[in-house]
Amino acid sequence: MKGFKKVLTFVALVLVIVLSLTACGQDEQTQAPANEGEKPDTSFAGTYDGSAEGYHGNLNVSVELDETGKILSVAVGEDHGETPGIGDIAIEKLPKLIVEAQSLRVDSVAGATRTSDGIIGAVANALSSAGLDPAALGYVPKEVDKWKVAKYDASTMPEKVPTTDTIVIKDVKGREVSIDVPISTYALSTMDVIDFIIPILGEDAFHKLVASGNDGGNGILGYDKLYTPVVGTYMTHFGQISEHNAPFDLEMILAQDPDVLIVNSAMQAHKYALEIEPQLTEAGIPIVLIDVPGKNLTTSTQDTFKILGRLFQKDERAAEVSTFIDEQYTLIDSMNLDEKTDKATVYYEKGGAAEVFGSTATSLSGWGVLIDYAGGENIADPILIDAASGKGSSNTLDPEIVLEANPEFVIMSGGGWMDNHANATHSEPSYDIVNRTGWSELKAIKDGNLYNLSQAMNRSTYSFFAVIKIASWLYPEEFENIDVDAIIDEYFDRFMLTDSSVNVWSHKWDGVTRK
Amino acid sequence: MIKTQQLENNVNRELYNAMIKRRVALSAVLLAALFALVILNIFIGSSDITLKEIIIAIFLKEGKGHTVMIVNQIRLPMALMAVAVGAGLGMGGCEIQTILRNPIASPYTLGITNAATFGAAMGLILNMNVVKASEPLMVTTNSFLFALLASVLVYAFSLRPGAGKNGIILFGVALNFLFNAATMILQYIANDEDLKSMVFWNMGSLLKTTWTKFYIVFSVVVVCFIVFYLNSWKLTAMTLDDTKARSLGVDTQKVRQMVILLTSLLTAVSVCFIGAIGFVGIIAPHIARQFVGEDQRFFLPLSAMLGAFVVSVSFVVSKIVIPGVVLPIGLVTAMIGVPIFLFIVFRKMRTL
Predict the structure, then answer these.
(1) CATH topology of domain A154-328
(2) Pairwise CA distance, residues A391 & A382, whole Å
(3) In this protein, which residues make up the domain named Fe/B12 periplasmic-binding (chain A) (predicted)?
(4) Which is nearest to A252 in space by CA: B132, B171, B47, B181?
């Protein structure tokens, strides 16, 4: 039985690896700093540090006490990641309230409850490290409502409203689909398509959503963490119907029985969807194909909004958001960037590092399309655009060619999905790429023109913003009187459920060479 | 003298009968386990349906919502497909190992899987339709046609005089590398989305099963089984070396050609509908050999049953690891198959 034992060991090892992998996925509890030794009972005088979890990561405070333990001042550390605006109000107001009342039972600032609770918790933490009992000052520890996986509960499924009408919709592939309206529940091929639904349905975008496939950024989890605190629990009536770009789980679709399945036609998802169309038709679930910005960068977002507007009988709302996006492209068009004689030269690379050569894209594919529209002259075009792989995404340029072309701008992409939920951690791009041989001599690097773009902007409703952002880097003189970031703020303000701080949209290299 | 001879004969006869009885019993147990697994596979799925509802849905075709459709058109064909594909690959592996007398031979050795992968890649990445199949069927037909092409090439090679077992293996290896390189070229020019689909295709999936696809696989498996079974004495003789087999009156060249043709067909239908399911073709025959040895009358059905068993178990596991998500079957088959395979390797090491 010696052999059997060996196999057991092997199986155990595999299990351990699998378990440790799953364990890594779980958020680790942030440990409050341990008490810094017992203080003598007689005097509390001094400054004490404390910390607690705020809305976006940890909040640090330092509390000044006199010898009787009276709170003289509370200062919130600068290194917090709270929401600018409403979060700042809480950071300014709460310390004053606490000092005034000499109590931790103070009202939190409306709209910034988590930040307020964080400050109170941090002060309590500082007090206990001073040897005081925060409970004596009215401190009630708040249960930080950690995000957790909601358990599926069929009884929470959105109720089906009796349909009153049948409409025929022409989708992006020209298919005529007839659909009974109003739509009570819907499913998505890929989770990030919900960015198209939110502007039209608002919170109902989540309450009517019963199933979706995952997207490339593990969006099902990401959107859950981001939006559940905003719109309330919706995952109890949600079923995952596919992995990213994988065949659909037909059974899950039928079990969730959406009124319509909305499919992103720009991806393989639509082939998988058409494969199961006969069964879906039999079950009375129509497929509507939508498009995301790709070849038709300037129109596809708006077309999709219009189709969805018809589908959900919110044509006006759809018109509003597509007009907004039209205006942004009109703004770019008015600058005639395409006709510039002295175009800025750009090299694009996907998430590369000094010794990891990421792929580039020509003006025909991916980010290259956006860079082209923003008036960039892509150094990959002369070499790759006619090559068989010109439209592919595995193109890597010979490093010599990049050095010889000496681009004025280097634009990278990668990271930065819509993940700025309460427990998100953001790390800055490493910009290790500047350590690549010969790069210190590149014009772009010398001038500090190295940028990183959030992946969430490619092939999404936010593509318009990526174009504007890139154009503003390439031709700052054209944007002298335009507040670029205000554009995305306005979009979120008018059409989305959160503010634009849910994502780090872009990032500029700070000029520091890291090794 | 004659009496002792007779006595000895009787003892041998009894021993033989006992052995046969044990093997039949083993097969019966396995068959029962397989049946239980099929039931389990029908019972487990992404949605919650009670056993009662399932029985009503199957026999009375009644149920609320889409239950009837879920049970009869999704779970039932998928559960049966797992059995059919597993049996096909198990059988294929068993015969390939027999005719090539090589323990690491499998349907993959002949290059058929890689050819099928290349065909799928042509559909997924180039959108190229080899025959004018409808768009949803394009990938499947492409991969099937390329699997057939590889089969024809191997078969044609085996027809050459003097194409021995080593020659066939080397030819298969060459085909593997050829199609692998061709697939890599396609992957090089592919965009991210297509690449991701390609990866998933390779991992295999039972989710696309329909009754039509099941019937195709099932009929091929049944026909191959019958042909193999009728030739079981010849195939058993093939486990000896070629000279001895020929002296027993077996046309080794001819048997080899027949097996290559049928195994290619088995692999082609399995792979083009389900994707590459690794390992089943190697491990199923190895386990079977541990139980019953080389006697094809038992070795063949047991390989088929064990293949079906491994794929069915993998399918059950693939549905329960993450509730609500069906993992690609290829991943699970390998994760479950490798420990079993290593177990056999360790046991063999001990007996040596």
Answers:
(1) Rossmann fold (3.40.50)
(2) 13
(3) 197-482
(4) B47
Question: Would you tell me which CATH number, out of the four given (3.40.250.10, 3.90.1010.20, 3.30.565.10, 3.40.50.300), belongs to the domain A46-137?
Answer: 3.90.1010.20
Which residue type, as a one-letter code, is found at position A98?
A: I
- What's the CA gap between B289 and A49, in Å, rounded? 70
Kindly list the residues from chain A whose CB atom is less than 8 angstroms away from the CB atom of residue B124: 268
B351 touches chain A (CB under 8 A): no
Alpha carbon distance A472, A66 (integer Å): 53
* A423, A56 Cβ separation under 8 angstroms: no
Contact A249, A276 (CB under 8 A): no
Provide the b/e sequence for B120-159 (b: ≥16 CB within 10 Å): bbbbbbeeebbeebeebebbbbbbbbbbbbbbebbbebbe
User: Model confidence over A172-217: pLDDT tens digits?
Assistant: 888 899 999 899 999 999 999 999 999 999 999 999 999 999 887 7
Closest to B258 measured CA to CA, from B291, B284, B235: B235
Asked if this assembly's ipTM is beyond 0.90, the reply is no
Q: With respect to CATH, is domain A337-508 assigned 3.40.50.1980?
A: yes
- Residue count of chain B, please give it: 352
> What three-state secondary structure class fits A294?
coil
Q: Give the distance from residue A381's alpha carbon to the nearest chain B alpha carbon, in angstroms.
A: 15
- Residue B201, min C-alpha distance to chain A (Å): 8
Partners of A10 on chain B (C-beta within 8 Å) are 339, 342
Residue from A215, A238, A251 whose CB has the most chain B CBs within 10 Å, to mutate? A251
- DSSP-assigned letter for residue B279: S
Say whether A274 and B65 touch across the interface (CB within 8 A): no
DSSP A201-263: HTTHHHHSEEEEE--TT-HHHHHHHHHHHHH---GGG-EEEESTTS---HHHHHHH--SEEEE
By three-state DSSP, how is residue A288 classified? Answer: strand
| Residue whose token pair is 């594919």 | A365
A59, A136, B71, B338 from A100: Cα distances, Å: 21, 16, 67, 68
In A51-87, which positions are buried (b, 16+ CB within 10 angstroms) versus exposed (e)? bbbbbbbbbbbbbbbeeebebeebebeeebbbbeebb
In this complex, how many residue pairs, one in chain A and one in chain B, have their CB atoms less than 8 Å apart? 119
Residue segments in chain A with a per-residue pLDDT below the cut of 70: 1-42, 55-56, 83-86, 110-111, 142-148, 388-394, 415-428, 514-515
DSSP single-letter state for residue A402: H
A253: burial class by Cβ within 10 Å (0-12, 13-18, 19+)?
Answer: buried
B75: which DSSP letter?
Answer: I
d(CA B54, CA A5): 40
Is-cis flag, bond preceding B328, omega within 30?
no
Q: Taking the CB of residue A335, how many other CB atoms lie within 10 A of it?
A: 17
**Domains of chain A by residue range:** 46-137, 154-328, 337-508
Cβ contact A4–B343 (<8 Å): yes
Q: Which domains are present in chain B?
A: 2-351 (1.10.3470.10)
**Cβ contact, residue pair B200, A10, below 8 Å:** no
| Chain segment A66-89, per-residue pLDDT in tens | 888 888 888 888 777 776 666 777
Q: Find out whether A338 and A332 touch, Cβ atoms under 8 Å.
A: no
